[in-house]
Amino acid sequence: MKTKSPPDRHVFKTSWDEISYVYDKVLYWLYERESKARARPFAARLTRLLSEADPRQESILGQECRSLICESNNDLPGAIKHRKNEIRLIRRLREISIGTPTEEYVLNGYGYDDLSDRLDLLAVLYHDNGDLDKAIATLHESKQLCHEHGIDFDGADLLRDYLEVRRNTDTTFSKNGTTATKNRVKAMLK
Question: Considering the entire predicted model, what is its pTM?
Answer without folding.
Answer: 0.85
